[in-house]
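Bug report (template v2)

What were you trying to do?
Predict the complex of my protein with flavin-adenine dinucleotide.

What happened?
Run completed; filing so the output is reviewed.

Input:
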Amino acid sequence: MATLLRPFSQPPTIKSSPINHVRHTPLLSSPKPASSKTRRLRVQSGNLGNFLDLKPESKLGSLDIDLSWFHPSDRSGFDLIVIGTGPAGLRLADRVSRYGVKVCCVDPSPLSMLPNNYGSWVDEFESLGLGDCLDKTWPMTCVYIHDGRTRYMDRAYGRVSRNFLKTTLLENCVSNGVRFHKAKVWEVKHDEFESSIACDDGSEIKASLIVDASGFASTFIEYDKPRNHGYQIAHGILAEVDSHPFDLDKMVLMDWRDSHMGNEPYLRASNSRIPTFLYAMPFDQNLIFLEETSLVSRPMLSYVEIKKRMVARLRHLGIRVKTVIEDEKCLIPMGGPLPRIPQSVMAFGGTSGIVHPSTGYMLVRAMALAPVIADAIAECLGSARMIRGRALHHRVWQSLWSSDRKRVREFNSFGMETLLQLDLNGTRGFFDAFFSLDPYYWQGFLSSRLSLRELASLSISLFERASNTSKLDVVTKCPLPLARLMGNLALEALS
Ligand SMILES: Cc1cc2nc3c(=O)[nH]c(=O)nc-3n(C[C@H](O)[C@H](O)[C@H](O)COP(=O)(O)OP(=O)(O)OC[C@H]3O[C@@H](n4cnc5c(N)ncnc54)[C@H](O)[C@@H]3O)c2cc1C
């Protein structure tokens, strides 16, 4: 169905069903290692602004699952070690172990609940057979371009049940015989046909292949080029509120309105240069997840600035936070160079370059790519084959970063570079045109489903639909990124 264009938001129309589970100066600051923290808070807030002062009350809990623990007698017996039991590591361990490949997952806290509030398009999760892992869905999504213009999209969005997702992945691993070791990996070493890890508990474990799925802050993966990432940074709260103005049947993908900055000239000026938007999941009239987000910035927009903008926005929207149930700091490196390909450690998840460079989304991509990499690993390490060392590393890296995927990533990185050039008005114009595209294109772009040829068509349509100001923006501000894109595509074609 085509995207609908309507004036400013209507009052709530559909009451959604209750959810089943409930899931920080200067303007610019220098990048720090990526982090994500979700804290559980239960402190009352007295006025519109002071929810930022609330202190965490308790930590994330643990899942109650009986894991098969690593035993010292297993020390030399693994085909594969996966570092990290985040969604990427567990999904890969699950898929590889289905082939009878012996896998050990190592994490300081394998049973910890996943910390992040993940969202996804419903069709994406369903196509992976993981529809059950969504604990709340919204039939529509909307994007507020500015006060007088809102786009409504017929694409359902869902909130991922972190507990259910992790439980499902862990249980699959357990039933396939995956072992778990509770430790932090300090070091990875390599011989010609075997690798090993050294952990903080003094243990050393050997395997034919090590996969690093330890997230964005990993230090095990090497790069040939300087890492000029963009950064997505956001502050999110799951909050109990007196009321909020959002429709319960619509997930707010982006709210670019800036009327809340009327009395805040400094905030308005900085937001005009480096804009932030609100991402909101309204669960009911009194429960809502709110996240003030910088889509991409370089250098990174300061966390303090983001929080100030959020305070001003909530005040303007009349949202009084009574209780903060959870909060999260979201920091996602986007774009930048890929790791050196191949290298002795295989990367997967946040550390592998699969984050969408224009959006910061990764979860579904990791879920979808794990079986592809698992096939390659099983081909090499499965019972019938004996492919080890360089040939193994080459094969698994190629399975993730084929030429086609690299070219598409180049294009998506160009998207990120374009977004980095745009101010608030340019960004609004961009998304206004983007969400007016044929859904095949905008949905395909966001879901990394388009071929390079389709991406080229998308760009032409986008340019045709853009306002004259946006066209001028692209022509004047983007020749360098465009030239870089063409150069990199040419190099990739020659390699
Ligand atoms: C706050 C936040 C919200 C996000 N929301 C979304 C979203 O809505 N949708 C989406 O698609 N993407 C989202 N992302 C991006 C991305 O999908 C997530 O970051 C995702 O969790 C990355 O998965 P991962 O398994 O690669 O790494 P992580 O989830 O970070 O897991 C890494 C694991 O490795 C372990 N580990 C780290 N170091 C070591 C070590 N030395 N030894 C052993 N273990 C180690 C950690 O304990 C952790 O368990 C979000 C990111 C953040 C930060």
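What did the reviewer find?
Residues 36, 83-89, 106-109, 116, 118-120, 184-185, 213-215, 328, 330-332, 349-350, 361-364 surround flavin-adenine dinucleotide (CB under 6 Å). The two ends are 41 Å apart (CA to CA).
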